[in-house]
Amino acid sequence: MINLFRKSLEAKILGLVMGVIVVGFGIFAWFDVSRDTRDLNNQKEQSTSQLSSNVVNSIQNTMLAGIGSSKGMIATNALEKLRSSPEVERIDVYSNQGQAVFGSSGVDGEAREQISEVLETGNPASYFETRDDKQFLVQVLPLPNETSCQACHFDGQARRGAVLVSNSMASVTSAIHDDKVRMAEVFIGGLLTLLVVLGLSLRATVLKPLRQMVGVIHNITGGDLNERVKVESRDEVGNLAENFNKMTENLQASQNNLRQVNLHLLEANRLKSEFLSVMSHELRTPLNAIIGFSEVLKDEGNGNITDRQEKYLVNIETSGRHLMQLINDILDLARVGSDSMELTREDVSIPRMMEDIRKLGHPFAAQRRIWLEVRASDPLPLVDAEAAKIKRVLYNLVSNGIKFTPEGGRVILEAHPLENMVEISVTDTGIGISPEDQKKIFAEFQQLDSTHSRRFEGTGVGLALSKKLVEQHGGRISVESELGKGSRFSFTLPMTPGRQRASDRSEIVINPQPFIEKESVKGQPLVLIVEDDPQTSELLSIWLGDASYRVAQAFDGEQALKLARELKPYAITLDILLPKIDGWQVLQKLKSDPDTENIPVIIVSILEKSRRGMELGAFDYFVKPVEKKELLCRLESNRLHRLRLDIKADDKSEG
To answer: Which of 89, 125, 206, 446 has a CA 20 to 30 Å removed from the CA of 473?
Structure first.
């Protein structure tokens, strides 16, 4: 029943009308029955009062008790005649002492109280009582002791006694019941007739056009905009149908216009793709020539070009490669947007890719004195993706993190498995992104509208391209950020079903072993390089080797302390951000150990804390990126040379 009212408009309307009628008729019936009941009760009270008066008149001049005259017999016969009426239940006469002299032999309860009160006050009384599920109207009247009666009654009392008349209410009850039945029959018959008439009228005038409109709406929803509702009246329903037809016509016209616009857009997109393809070819050809000839001039110039000219050539090459990358990004963005880019999927190791990105981004991060760190779950499954495309996405996120992070900050690459996916994230401690900008940051050619972003290069292509590439792989990309605290970009990639290599468990953590170069020339000074990044360590090794130094390499704090005690090198280059034991602790332990306290320590770090380094005993302090000439010059300085001579002299004297 509830579902019927929920789904059927007809049922709702009829139910509402029926409810109003039931409430209205119920109120009317209550008032009508109450009025009839009141009238019948009044009639019954009047008839009972008349009967009671007749009883009093019959015995007006005599009392039955103790009288054997003809008057007593006449009164008794009159009372018996009155009591024989069908409506009369009983007639009792009581003396002024409350004793029954005619009818009942005695009374109890309310009748006794009423008789006593009437004998005392002389006021008539009436009340209703129920016996054996039957209702009676009882009246008690006083018998006055008039002057004419006192010739026989010498007691001097004002009342000779009382009369009790009990009249049945059966006729009243029956009349009320018949009235209720009649009202119910009229109500049910009228309600059914009204509902039938109302239902037929409702279907013909309201529901039929509405159902026709619903059918047309279903057809329009299915794509057929040629359907129209038939207008059969000029009332509200007809007006609704007419307006609906106008709306459908407008919708059809709009759809036709949109269809034409879409055709034009598709054609424009095709022309744009062709244009980008042609222009990219036309731009790449001269750019390749510019980059190539700048490399030739730089490599073959030797001593024929000055340092300033070489700097210009480097700028030309760098700018050309930047422009080439921008052209590639725009072309790829157009290809992804037109669904013309196809993916060459393969099993990709995310730890290995993250390590490659770390190596690519490390020089840029070191130049800006930013700590670039890689973390990954162990083990990490393979993903089903095109390696070059995902590497491009990851490099875009890392380079953005480095670019928008102030000096001394951190950029962290993380990866961990989810259900059927692998999530990769790049977290930085940069300037952050406002909630408003987060909504539009992945839009094409969109840059942050802030004073910070204007200080950095960018076209707004990288994140838009990254989003499209990730979605093309079946993943999702998102950002979480807070102004002034940094950002976290994360994206997901599908796992390769049923494939996982054990080698992935250790690819991300590279623990290079200490290295000690053999002495090629007797007395060749040894420099201990303490650097956790293998590329930076290798670069320092090449510089020192070119300057005729022998090198040893340590990649964490524990290795540094061990090699320093064993080798007692000529000097130590020390990074601060080291695994296991950081550079500050290494420096403190070196200076607190008598065997190593005199070894000169040159700090090479991205942290700008030279004052602390000098206070802890460092010989000198360089902030990355360090210049080769400056580092070698410091190693070959007279002060360091004299310091080393003093150390050797101390060693000989101790020997």
So the answer is: 446
- Say if CB 530 and CB 583 are below 8 A apart: yes
Q: How many CA atoms lie within 13 A of 206 on its CB side?
A: 12
564 — pLDDT class (breaks 50, 70, 90): very high
Rg (CA), the chain: 57
**Continuous segment of H or E residues that includes residue 233:** none
Sorted by sequence, the CB contacts under 8 Å of residue 224 that are 6+ apart come out as: none
- CA 491 to chain CA mean position, Å: 21
Q: What sign does the CA torsion over 338, 339, 340, 343 have?
A: positive
Q: In angstroms, rounded to a whole number, what is the distance separating the alpha carbons of residues 182 and 384? A: 84
- What are the C-alpha distances in Å from 598 to residues 157, 507, 587? 145, 39, 11
145/261: higher pLDDT: 261
Beta bridge partners of 421: 418, 494
Is residue 591 pLDDT above 60, yes or no?
yes
pLDDT band at 444 (very low <50, low <70, confident <90, very high): low
| pLDDT tops 60 at residue 531 | yes
End-to-end CA distance of the chain: 109
Tokens for 264?
């034009």
Q: Report the sign of the C-alpha dihedral through residues 573, 575, 579, 585, in that order.
A: positive
| More confident position, 134 or 481 | 481
Helix (H) or strand (E) holding 260: helix 236-300
- Cα separation, 635 vs 572, in Å, equals 10
- For 250-261, letters b (16+ CB in 10 Å) and e give eeeeeeeeeeee
Judged by DSSP in three states, 166 sits in strand
Q: In this structure, is the dihedral angle defined by the CA atoms of residues 370, 608, 513 and 540, taken in order, positive or negative?
A: positive
**Whether the Cβ atoms of residue 440 and residue 446 lie closer than 8 Å to each other:** yes
Report how far residue 52's alpha carbon sits from residue 60's, in angstroms, rounded to the nearest whole number: 12
DSSP-H helix ranges across 301-382: 307-337, 350-367
**Residues making up the chain, counted from first to last:** 655
Residues 6+ apart with CB under 8 A from 354: 374, 376, 394, 413, 415, 424, 508
**381-417 burial, b if ≥16 CB within 10 A, otherwise e?**
bbbbbbbebbbbbbbbbbbbbbbbbeeebbbbbbbeb
Buried b (16+ CB within 10 A) or exposed e, 420-455: ebbbbbbbbbbbbbeeebbeebbebeebbeeeebee
Determine the Cα–Cα distance for residues 451 and 12; give it in Å rounded to an integer: 62
What is the rounded CA–CA span in Å between residue 267 and residue 264?
A: 5
DSSP one-letter string for 554-586: E-SHHHHHHHHHHH--SEEEE-SS-SSS-HHHH
Q: What are the tokens at 345?
A: 């999927």
